[in-house]
## 1
Amino acid sequence: MNFDEIIERRDTHSLKWDMMEPLFGVPKSSGISMWVADMDFRPPEAATDALEAMLRNGIFGYYGDERGYREAIVWWMANRHDWLIEPDWVFSTHGLVNGMALAVDTFTKPGDGIVLFTPVYHAFAKIIEAAHRRVIECPLSLKNGRYEFDFSVYGQWVQENAKMAILCSPHNPGGRVWTRDELRDVHNFCQRHDLILVSDEIHHDLVMPGHQHVVMPLAAPEAMDRLVMLTATTKTFNLAGAHIGNVIIADERLRSTFAQRMNALGISPNSFGMFLAESVYSLEGAEWVDALMQYLDHNRRLFDARMNQISGVHSMSLEATYLAWVGFHDMKLSDEEIRQKINGQAQVAVNYGSTFGMGGQGFHRFNIATPRSVLEDALGRLEQAFDVC
Ligand SMILES: Cc1ncc(COP(=O)(O)O)c(C=O)c1O
């Protein structure tokens, strides 16, 4: 594992690098891409070995016999997250946005309200609105530079037709690792309003040294009869193109309703994703993630130290994820003027905070999962754009 290696991603159909020009106007030839959440690192060798074995065999037929795959997930959740699950609690979907869309489709109907704690990963609102459900925005509050829930005010927005809440844990953007107490509060809120709780824990392995992610079922064991858990190998091991995710449902009633919907939509596994996922849920994969998080911890310290030197800029201290959430509010410039500096002058492509819902205005999200030399190049450009030398 060499996270310093520069791997050319332009002209490889990379969403991150090949779309930065059409989407953000940042030139592909000279720009640096720090938007969408995929990393510029190779996955563990186990993943490439698994693909090579498929290639040697040379036949790419339907995937069958999921026992090994399910056991690998059971092993990972037990060994890395202390959560004991049964193999038949797991559904594999075509990624987690797909898993979430299926949960929305299965457990709510058009017109129903779905609570989001904003700002939050923009795809949540996108699928909810596309499915003709209603987003109920419950804004997180900013206290001492970090996000917290404020359940004293959320109740007023939750009307009768609210049926679901979607939690992002750890939080994207903002990088919070929610505490047990906070997770219990989320569950109590869902219980009070009788909401299905979807806990998207795709970032569960990407936790900075010194922090500990707690899976929702451990924080609130009594949540099981309303809980839909979403996890994946793809964010952890940089396999997003494999489009595979786990929907884990312990409750038998919820599980059979979900299974019926999966059947009705004819969803069956993509063998490339299955082989890749099984290969990385291993001791080798665990060692790789530990090394990755050391590297990312160093990147985040470097990023924060230099960005926070720029007057009026506040980079939130990440407890998890590699997505730095940076506030430019104190600069007294409009979002448009900030974008001109970041995209236009520095030629760095980033996500715009306003796309993450209420509370996102004035922020920009920077993906720091890139070789250190690329990060340093980007920081130098940003410092120049904001006149710091
Ligand atoms: C919270 C969260 N959920 C889901 C996804 C995407 O999942 P997938 O690529 O499996 O659809 C992301 C990607 O950044 C994410 O941050």
## 2
Amino acid sequence: MYGIGSPVKPVEAHNLEKSFGQVRAVRGVSLHVDRGEIFGLLGPNGAGKTTTIRMITGIISPDRGRVYIMGYDVLKDPLKAKSHVGVVPEISAPYVDLSAWDNLMLAGRIYHVEDHMRRARAKDLLKMLNLSEAMSRKVKGFSKGMRQRLLLAMALISDPGILILDEPTSGLDIISTRMVRSLITDLRREGKSIFLTTHNIEEAGILCDRIAVINKGRIVAEGSPEDLRINFEEFRSVKIILDRDLKGIEEALGSFDVLIQGRKIFITCRRDEVDEVLRRTMKLAEDLGARVEEVQTTGPSFEEIFMKLIRGKER
Ligand SMILES: Nc1ncnc2c1ncn2[C@@H]1O[C@H](COP(=O)(O)OP(=O)(O)OP(=O)(O)O)[C@@H](O)[C@H]1O
Ligand SMILES: [Mg+2]
């Protein structure tokens, strides 16, 4: 527990480790979620996001490390810890033979939400998530987006202060994605604390107040989207368009971070290397009888920053 005066954080994880046989899924992850923020754990497939979430929600025990929810140890005080949290796991489904309404009533009963509160909240949530018209229909006929929105509503039925969402928009179309994202930002406005995972860089950048980037079970960077961008201020992204495809150009520019898409060459380099990059590419093009049609230099995109981080070449 905490000493007097230390603010209790909604979620705090210290040094989590978890292996499955030989696979070291999570290797010393520490993170926290502050009150009223949207915190995103961003990482590629297999990075350890779901394993981290499962330890935080007490579904699996870590090999090492501790998790506190509102100051309660998830393993020692699971009921108190979990009473503050609504969760939508990566793989979960509402009961398909029940209606949306009955699923919500059931979720409310599981969370011990009093009858009239349960009904009132269910109505509000269905409205917020655009499911009011479908509320009496069996979930069997629901689209993936409708099911995901219903799962969110179910996680919110007890009005928890903390919401933990594993890839809340994965596989959803743009309309459902927007509904889910706008619900998440509305919840933050109400003062709720949100912990989500995503592999979608753009989503992390627009939705989260703070991001931790995870790769191969380790946090490799942390900060606001803006902080992460500032760390990469010295980097530039150079785009060069030639009048034709050229083979072998990637190897010739091997010391830089190069991506070729047909006639387009994308190179990420330091600011002081831009002249060198341009000189070498122009020379190469000339030697191979190609013409440079367009050159553009910009700050790196969020995607380029992410790629650099997970390749471990950031410095
Ligand atoms: N129950 C398990 N048994 C064996 N290996 C597992 C288990 N759960 C996870 N792993 C392994 O641990 C690693 C991390 O998996 P995890 O599901 O946490 O990644 P993730 O970041 O959620 O990936 P995704 O974006 O694909 O959901 C992977 O190598 C995975 O194969
Ligand atoms: Mg996952």
## 3
Amino acid sequence: MKPVVGFIGLGIMGEGMLGNIIEKGGYRTVIYNRSAEKCAPFAEKGATVASSPAQVVKEADVTVLMLANSDAVQWVLGGKDGALSGISSGKTLIDMGTNTPEFNEKVKDLVEERGGDYLEAPVLGSKVPAKEGTLTILVGGKEEKFEEYRELFGTMGKAIFYMGEVGKASQMKLIINQIMVGMLALFSEGLVAGERSGISAQKMLEVVKNSVLNCPLFSIKGPNMIISHDFSPHFPLKHAQKDLRQALSRGDKLAVPMPVTAAANSLYIMARDMGLGDEDFSAVIKTLMRGDGEVHIDI
Ligand SMILES: NC(=O)c1ccc[n+]([C@@H]2O[C@H](COP(=O)([O-])OP(=O)(O)OC[C@H]3O[C@@H](n4cnc5c(N)ncnc54)[C@H](OP(=O)(O)O)[C@@H]3O)[C@@H](O)[C@H]2O)c1
């Protein structure tokens, strides 16, 4: 029999992922979100709306978390009505957000102390792959639990990797984001320098596409950054900065110098403090623009 799936965290990613669990997977679901109004469209599709995280875990066999950051996870887990209070033998908690290996190891211990099972399963891909069910999913934890929930992961993702013990998947996820977010900072510098030199945006993107820099990140984000100036959030900038911060803390722990990541992090901190945290992470380019947010050409 199919497990009952709990889902907590209906943000940019969670909405698409839950949609696929219900529509593609046909699972019975119990859901909770801090801002309750986001549950309504899923209630219409048959999801049971719980009044607390604890109720989700009590009614579900397996509960997925897709929350903003570790503060949000702690808020959802803790307290009298928190998810942890519903954990007992036979219950599984799967955290699919991006946190550090250290944080996930602590949550795993808290879940196991109560007799439950824990998997970390951070994802690669943004709003569109979440909606289309084509995420890449990295899973850490007991292999038999991974196998038990492989079908559930399959409703949300097209490529699913078992990475080993808890900590390995979150480390791999941080590596991907460290590189991706850092690349966009460097891309921004190049694009602004190009425009200010009088090279047209269109031409620059065409040249990039026909060079070794041709990659989905640049071809998806480039036109939004310098042609349409569309910074509607797919991956919010505040989360990108969080991931650089987490990558740097891992660098410190592992004694890996990360001067390039540190420089990119400074730019994203600046962007966040300019009020761009809720825009897409490509809005980092605005830190390099002048005044009205447009790139000016001085010729
Ligand atoms: N967006 C992406 O492209 C992407 C890609 C891969 C991984 N991720 C990671 O996936 C996670 C979710 O990302 P997202 O883009 O979906 O984030 P998001 O749109 O900001 O949604 C965050 C979710 O967390 C909840 N939340 C935030 N603070 C909370 C708190 N203090 N207590 C309880 N709930 C809280 C929000 O509830 P409300 O609705 O009440 O605000 C919402 O449900 C993050 O760890 C992110 O780094 C994101």
